[in-house]
């Protein structure tokens, strides 16, 4: 079965939320050195400004679940788009550390909501055999946004940081205008009793009317007695039969962050500058990291449907471990900014980025969007997103301090150990969901066979 062009367009427009996520989190790496100088920020204050967006994302992720259940996935994405526009417009005029923090909190609310809603929205409109690549389009947009922020940050490094942040208005407007033209999730509509509307959307999304009718029948069969409801959803989320999905979703989210990827994105220029790189060289050094990130997400988007979610993570994580061990060694020996050592360091960071992002960062939003039953999917995804942002907050608040305490080499070695633990977690706890309908995944949970599928 071929995925309709409309389904692809819907996924790409919705994934613009990921572009904003990537740009707004990535641009701080270029702007931070200017902000520290202009606002006379201490190391701790720099960590506060950087982390404000993550605090907002944590609140946005938790709040988005009940909202998307109540009013639908599409209207919730529209709310996130409005928050992106407000936060970006306001930060252009920030004139103090306090106003910077408030604006980044607003942007964080939008990012947290987007990470909770957009993957679910795409997963609920996508056919099973293309669900992996279409949901990963969200993560690919994140990578493109971050790479774009690195390139633009370097190109306009001699201009105001206000311009760096202001460019984010463009994709925010694209997301808002695009979502005005898209349908709501057919699964959400069906479970709200709006069966005729759900049927109309599925007929537009699927290749044949027969296929659409069969999918609607399956949705309704699993929806009997399980209407989407916030209060019931949280009770069901922590029930015994959903627990395997909870462990998988939250576990992948946790390891996605404690393995260090956002620490590299946020602070790589600062870390490189501290060991002797010039400001221009430090900013330039993260562009190859961004290229590796986008390449790895594109590869992962293919691999999750070709190899499977589980195999992709197991195949790639060892490469991330090796890349971090080499990077840590180069910093520890003081070779990171000298001749060939600088090249080895940059390439090893690129290797780490490729293998880590292509595995855990590709898997987090996809797995979170598909393993939970519909009755508590929003709540489960809220918890996945909240875990991601909570650990991200911890990492962002402590990375520079850890570098001062352990040295850059020690921090990279610590992240290598976390990647090894992530490999062990995937091996023992993550089943394969490639090509399986969302309703079949729910059936496996109900029958206790969820973890038996590890092919």
Automatic annotation (TrEMBL):
GO CC annotation: plasma membrane
Keywords carried by this UniProt record: Cell membrane, Membrane, Sugar transport, Transmembrane, Transmembrane helix, Transport
InterPro entries membership: MFS_dom, MFS_sugar_transport-like, MFS_trans_sf, Myo-inositol_Transporter, Sugar/inositol_transpt, Sugar_transporter_CS
Major facilitator superfamily (MFS) profile domain mapped to chain residues: 10-434
GO molecular function (one): transmembrane transporter activity
Membrane topology recorded in Swiss-Prot or TrEMBL: Multi-pass membrane protein
A Pfam short name: Sugar_tr
Subcellular location: Cell membrane
Chief localization: membrane
UniProt cross-references to SUPFAM superfamilies, sorted A to Z: MFS general substrate transporter
Residue ranges of the TM segments: 46-64, 76-93, 99-122, 134-156, 162-182, 245-268, 280-302, 314-335, 341-368, 412-430
Protein family per UniProt: Belongs to the major facilitator superfamily. Sugar transporter (TC 2.A.1.1) family.
Designated name of the protein: Sugar porter family MFS transporter
């Amino acid at each position: 079965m071929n995925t309709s062009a409309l389904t692809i367009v819907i996924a790409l427009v919705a994934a613009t939320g990921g572009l904003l996520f990537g740009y707004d989190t990535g641009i701080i790496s270029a702007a931070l050195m200017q902000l520290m100088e202009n606002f006379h920020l201490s190391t701790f204050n720099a960590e506060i400004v950087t982390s404000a967006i993550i605090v907002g994302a944590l609140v946005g992720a938790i709040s988005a679940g009940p909202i998307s259940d109540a009013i639908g996935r599409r209207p919730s994405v529209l709310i996130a788009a409005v928050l992106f526009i407000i936060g970006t417009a306001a930060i252009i005029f920030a004139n103090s550390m306090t106003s910077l923090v408030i604006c980044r909190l607003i942007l964080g609310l939008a990012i947290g909501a987007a990470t909770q809603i957009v993957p679910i929205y795409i997963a609920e409109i996508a056919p099973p055999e293309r669900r992996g690549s279409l949901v990963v389009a969200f993560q690919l947009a994140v990578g493109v946004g971050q790479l774009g922020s690195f390139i633009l940050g370097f190109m306009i490094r001699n201009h105001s940081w206000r311009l760096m942040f202001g460019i984010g208005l463009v994709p925010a407007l694209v997301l808002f205008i695009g979502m005005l033209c898209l349908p709501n999730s057919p699964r959400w509509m069906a479970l709200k009793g709006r069966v005729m509307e759900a049927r109309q959307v599925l007929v537009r999304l699927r290749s044949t009317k027969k296929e659409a009718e069969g999918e609607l029948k399956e949705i309704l069969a699993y929806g009997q007695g399980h209407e989407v409801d916030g209060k019931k959803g949280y009770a069901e989320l922590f029930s015994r039969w959903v627990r395997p999905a909870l462990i998988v979703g939250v576990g992948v989210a946790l390891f996605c962050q404690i393995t260090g990827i956002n620490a590299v994105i946020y602070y790589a220029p600062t870390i490189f500058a501290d060991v002797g790189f010039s400001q221009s060289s430090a900013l330039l050094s993260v562009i190859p990291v961004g290229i590796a990130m986008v390449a790895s997400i594109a590869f992962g988007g293919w691999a999750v449907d070709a190899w499977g979610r589980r195999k992709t993570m197991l195949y790639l994580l060892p490469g991330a471990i090796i890349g971090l061990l080499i990077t840590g060694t180069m910093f520890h020996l003081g070779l990171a900014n000298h001749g060939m050592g600088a090249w080895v360091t940059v390439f090893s960071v690129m290797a780490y980025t490729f293998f880590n992002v292509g595995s855990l960062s590709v898997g987090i939003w996809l797995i979170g969007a598909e393993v939970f039953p519909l009755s508590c999917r929003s709540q489960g995804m809220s918890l996945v997103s909240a875990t991601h942002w909570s650990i991200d907050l911890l990492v962002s608040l402590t990375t520079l301090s850890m570098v001062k305490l352990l040295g850059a080499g020690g921090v990279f070695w610590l992240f290598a150990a976390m990647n090894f633990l992530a490999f062990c977690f995937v091996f023992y706890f993550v089943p394969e969901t490639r090509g399986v309908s969302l309703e079949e995944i729910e059936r496996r949970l109900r029958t206790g066979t969820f973890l038996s599928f590890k092919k």
